[in-house]
Specification:
Elements (H helix, E strand, L loop, with lengths): L13 H8 L2 H9 L6 E2 H8 L3 H13 L3 E6 L2 E6 L2 H13 L10 H12 L1 E3 L2 E3 L1 H12 L3 E2 L5 E2 L1 H10 L13 E4 L6 E4 H14 L2 E3 L6 E3 L1 H11 L7
Antiparallel strand pairs: 1-3, 2-3, 4-5, 6-7, 8-9, 10-11
């Protein structure tokens, strides 16, 4: 029986990408950059608790491997995730990764982990338990459907229009994508619709960023709006 030949015969070195993420420090850098923001090597070194010189070596490998890109502004070098494909790859791998009991080095570290699990940016759309509550409410009200293909219903499109939210069309990005949430292990709303809803929520003050992390917080105005528009209970936020 013939066996399909190895990936080397078609020029695909999957193992090269796997080696980049096999190191815990490099994986931590990628997770820290999932909100799409650019950060300096010093900021990432402090995040990982390592020397800047060590961080620079790891970052050079990630840039060389195409997972990160760098931008230089004067003396400063900023790193960010290369594109949305890398974001989706990291989120998918995180969803499959085994869970280890968290051992926070400080109370502030424990608080950051709780904040990220509650609500965070997954590149340009919300993730975490808050995102699941919004997604479940939209499905329950018939605004969003996963089957047969993920997408807004007619009622969902009308609802977005009433809120003044425009979902860009004509791009290769799907209007709706079921993005697997690596902390909740269920899909939340991604795609162009998730990004447009997130942008609107940030603009009108329903949600806000927490410091320089990718964690988000729902504001009092956001709690009222999500209850009024979707029936989301305060306890779920």
């Amino acid at each position: 029986m013939d066996i399909e030949r190895s990936d080397g015969d078609v020029g695909v070195d999957l193992a090269a990408v796997a080696r980049l993420l096999a190191d815990g420090t490099r994986a931590a850098f990628c997770l820290a950059l999932l909100d799409g923001r650019a950060r300096t090597a010093g900021e990432l070194a402090r995040h990982a608790g390592i020397a800047r010189s060590t961080a620079t070596s790891h970052l050079n490998l990630l840039v060389g491997g195409g997972l990160l890109v760098e931008e230089r502004h004067g003396r400063h070098r900023y790193l960010r995730v290369a594109d949305r494909r890398v974001i989706e790859l990291i989120e998918s791998l995180a969803e499959l990764a085994p869970r280890r009991p968290a051992r926070p080095r400080s109370l502030s570290g424990s608080g950051r982990r709780r904040a990220l699990a509650g609500a965070r940016l997954c590149y340009d759309h919300p993730a975490g338990s808050v995102a699941l509550a919004i997604t479940d409410a939209m499905i329950g009200r018939g605004l969003l459907a996963w089957e047969p293909e993920p997408g807004p219903t007619d009622a969902g499109s009308a609802w977005l229009a009433e809120l003044g939210i425009t979902v860009p069309s004509g791009s290769r990005r799907p209007p709706v994508r079921a993005c697997l949430d690596w902390t909740e292990r269920r899909p939340h709303l991604g795609g162009a619709m998730g990004a447009a809803l997130c942008a609107h929520a940030l603009t009108v003050g329903w949600i806000t960023r927490i410091g320089t992390t990718r964690a988000l917080a729902v504001t009092p105005a956001g709690r009222r709006a999500l209850h009024d528009h979707l029936g989301v209970r305060a306890a779920d936020l």
